[in-house]
Design brief:
The chain is 70% helix and 1% strand. It is globular, with a radius of gyration of 22 Å. The chain has a two-stranded antiparallel sheet with strand order 1-2. It is built from 13 helices and 2 strands.
Length: 301
C-alpha cells in the first residue's frame, strides 16, 4: 500500500512539474516576441498576407503585395489572422501562433514519450527539446514550420496509441488522419509523407505488415478529402486555371522535378541545429551498433 501511494503522488508531482514547465516555456518563447523585425524572409509572407485578410475581409485568398499567393494552404494564415483579431495587428501577434504551438509540441512530446518509454524519460525529453536551438528559433518565427511539426508529432502520437491497442480503437485511427490532414492544410505534402512513411516502415521493419490493412486507409482518405477539398475546391472556383496551374506546376512538378543537385546541406543543419544533444544521438548510434559499449552500473536501491 505505501508503494502505491508513493507512485501515485510521484505521478501527480511529475504532472504538476510538466504543467509549470510548459507555462515557463510559453513565457520564454513569447518574451519580447515583437522586439525585432522579421529576420526570416518567409515571415513577411504570413505577416503581410494575414494583415490583408483582416483589412479586406477575404479569408480565403492570401494576398501579398497585391499578388495572389498560392504557395501554402490556408490554415496558418487563419491562425495568424485569429491572433490579429484577438491581440491586435502587430508582429508579436503574428508570431504568437508559432510560440503557442511550440509550447504545445513540448507537452505533446511528453505524452508520446511516456507511452514509449518508462521512468523519467518523458520528463527529460521535454527539458531537452526547448533547449535545442532549432525548436526555440522556429517557435519564434511567423512561419509554418513549428505548426506543421506539431501536427506531424500529433499524427505519430495517434499512431502509437493505435498500435499499442492493436488498432482496435477506430477513434484513434480517425484522429491519426485528422492530424495528418491539418498538417497538410498547414504546409502541404510533408505532413503526409513524413508520418506516413514512418508508420509504414515501422510496421514493415518490425514484421507487423499485416497491421497496415488495419490503418483503414480508405476511410482515412475520405477524412482527408473532407478536411482539405473544401478550400481547394473554393480556390479553384474563384481563381480557376491560375490556381490549378500553380499547384500542379510550382508546387508539385517544381518540387519533385528540378535541376538542383543533391546536397548534404540538411544533414549538417540537422546536426548543427540540435547541438549539444545531437552529440548524444551520435553516441547512441555507436552504442546501438556495438562500437561503444560503456554504460553506467545500476545503483542499488
Amino acid at each position: 500500500m505505501p508503494t502505491f501511494f508513493n507512485d501515485y503522488f510521484s505521478k501527480i508531482t511529475e504532472k504538476q512539474l510538466v504543467f509549470f514547465w510548459l507555462i515557463f516555456c510559453l513565457i520564454a518563447l513569447t518574451y519580447k516576441l515583437g522586439g525585432i523585425p522579421p529576420y526570416h524572409s518567409d515571415e513577411n509572407f504570413y505577416v503581410e498576407s494575414s494583415r490583408n485578410m483582416i483589412e479586406s475581409g477575404d479569408y480565403l485568398t492570401p494576398i501579398y503585395h497585391d499578388k495572389k499567393r498560392f504557395n501554402k494552404p490556408i490554415l496558418y494564415y487563419w491562425l495568424v489572422s485569429a491572433s490579429y483579431k484577438i491581440f491586435g495587428v502587430n508582429l508579436a501577434s503574428a508570431r504568437l501562433a508559432s510560440a503557442f504551438f511550440g509550447s504545445l509540441t513540448i507537452g505533446l512530446l511528453y505524452l508520446i514519450s511516456t507511452r514509449l518509454f518508462k521512468g523519467g524519460i518523458g520528463f527529460y525529453s521535454i527539458l531537452i527539446l526547448p533547449a535545442t536551438f532549432l525548436h526555440f528559433q522556429i517557435s519564434r518565427w511567423a512561419t509554418t514550420d513549428i505548426v506543421m511539426s506539431f501536427f506531424i508529432l500529433l499524427t505519430l502520437y495517434y499512431f502509437v496509441c493505435s498500435y499499442q491497442c492493436d488498432f482496435k480503437k477506430k477513434s484513434e485511427i480517425y484522429l491519426f488522419y485528422v492530424a495528418m490532414s491539418l498538417g497538410f492544410m498547414t504546409k502541404g505534402p510533408p505532413a503526409i509523407i513524413i508520418p506516413g512513411a514512418i508508420a509504414i516502415l515501422f510496421l514493415l521493419v518490425t514484421k507487423r505488415g499485416k497491421f497496415i490493412f488495419q490503418l483503414r486507409i480508405g476511410q482515412g482518405f475520405i477524412i482527408f478529402l473532407l478536411l482539405t477539398i473544401p478550400w481547394f475546391a473554393t480556390m479553384y472556383s474563384l481563381h480557376g486555371d491560375q490556381f490549378k496551374d500553380h499547384i500542379i506546376g510550382a508546387e508539385i512538378k517544381g518540387r519533385l522535378v528540378h535541376a538542383t543537385p543533391f546536397s548534404l546541406y540538411y544533414f549538417g543543419v540537422l546536426f548543427r541545429y540540435h547541438l549539444p544533444w545531437s552529440l548524444f544521438f551520435l553516441m547512441a548510434v555507436l552504442h546501438q551498433f556495438g562500437f561503444y559499449n560503456n554504460s553506467l552500473s545500476p545503483v542499488s536501491g
